[in-house]
Structure formats: C-alpha cells, structure tokens
Amino acid sequence: MRKEPMHFWSGTTVKPEEITDIRAYNRANGIMWGIYAACTFLSGILSFFSIIVGAALLFGLLIPGIGVLIFSYNRIYNKYKSSSVSSSHSLVNGKTAIKNPKAAAILFTLFFAGICIIIGIMSYYGELDPEIIIDSDKIRIEAMYGVDINISEIADISLIDKSINEIDFGRRTNGYDGFGKALKGNFKSDSLGETLLFVIENSSPTIKIERIGQKDIYISLTDSDKTRHLYQQLMQIYR
Asked: How far apart are the C-alpha atoms of 221 and 206, rounded to whole Å?
C-alpha cells in the first residue's frame, strides 16, 4: 500500500523516477517478503514436531536465504526499472543486479530443494533405532541426544510390558518428535517427571533404566523381540 517505492537496503531510498509501476513494484516486494515470512512461520510449526527440523529450516532462511532475498529483489528492481535510468544504475544500491530473471528462479528452486534434502536426512536419522553398545563398565546409546551411562550410576533396570505411549511420555522439552513414531531426547510428564527417551512411540515392551540422581532412560526398538533381547543383555552386565 506504500505510495513511494519500497527500498531493500537499510539506509537507502528508491526514487519514484527509477520505477515504471510503483504499485506493481511494491506488490512484488510484498509478495517476496510474504513468502519469506511464511517460510519462517513454517519453521516454527515444524519445531512443534521436531526442533532439529525446524532449526534446520530457520538456519537455511537466515544464512543462504538472505542471498536468495538479494537476488530476488534485484530481479524485481530490474523488471520495474525505468528505461530512463542510466547504465550507472546497473548496480542496485551498490549491489550487482541479476541480468537474467531465470537465475533467481533457479536459485530459489535449488535453495528449497537443499532445505528439503536436509530435512529429509535429519528425519531419516531421527527415525532410526538407537544403537546400543554395551561395555563392561558403561552403556553407550548412539542416536540423536545419545548418552553414555556408567554402570555405577544405574539404580535399576526393568522391562515394562507397555509402549511409551501407554506409559505416558508427556511433552518434549528438548528432543526429537518427528513425523514418524520415534521419540528421542528430553521429555517431561506428570507421571514420569523428566526423562530421556530413545523409543518407538507404540512399540512394546519398554526398557526402563533408573539412574541415581539423573533422569530415567526409556528404550524401545521397532522390533519387540530385539527390545527383549537387549534387556537380557543389559541384565547380564547389571547383575
């Protein structure tokens, strides 16, 4: 709705005589910023499901995304630039303008494709079963939010014939709660308090490792038989 041409660079102005259609130019700028704001909003929505996925999108928007904005603005400026503007204006407010508008579209496509690939890789990794490595003096859980557990800090190990969903895992405080059924990281519920989960939401049974003065850990794998076998291995070293 702005009457004067909108500027892009802080501390600069775009003169009315530089632009052929101020209303269309300002609308194009509004659409550009609207898309960028929508993507930022999406990163917040995704964070409700997975803080890592949301953060990856936000990082992409804040780092390479700024370059995309610059190229997009240059494209808009060139489209609506008045032919009376001298060749000395080939630099848009001190920045080189894109000569081919298709370059901006290609850059947009590559940028969002890269973000999708990053999100896909992180989601795939997040959904994998944790790898449990058992040594004589410690248990190592290799996964997102993985942890080493010293045998000396274990108070008890038990097998619960329920899924974590039936037990009530509560809400994520700092962890992975992606698009699948895997839960990893820090959670908190009224019944369990603060916990560290490496579980498949609807898979039973669930292994509970109680630690002295630290968060209890819950583990369940996609294959129930593998969970039971893991419990037997843990009991051998704990005893």
From this structure: 8
When pLDDT is averaged across residues 178-191 and rounded to a whole number, the result is 85
Write down the domain spans for the chain: 16-127, 131-238
Side chain identity, residue 236: Q
Tens-place pLDDT, residues 30-78: 999 999 999 889 888 887 777 777 888 888 888 788 888 888 998 899 8
Give strand pairing partners of 1.
Answer: none
How far apart CA 184 and CA 204 sit, in angstroms, is 16
Is residue 133 within 8 Å of residue 142, measured between CB atoms?
yes
User: Average pLDDT in the 135-153 region?
Assistant: 91
Helices (H) and strands (E) counted in the chain, each on its own, are 6, 11
Q: Residue 5 and residue 10: Cα distance in Å, rounded?
A: 14
> Which residues does 23 contact at the CB level (< 8 Å), separation at least 6?
none
Record the tokens describing residue 159, joined without a space. Answer: 């097998």
* Burial classification of residue 218, based on how many CB atoms lie within 10 Å of its CB (0-12 exposed, 13-18 middle, 19 or more buried): buried
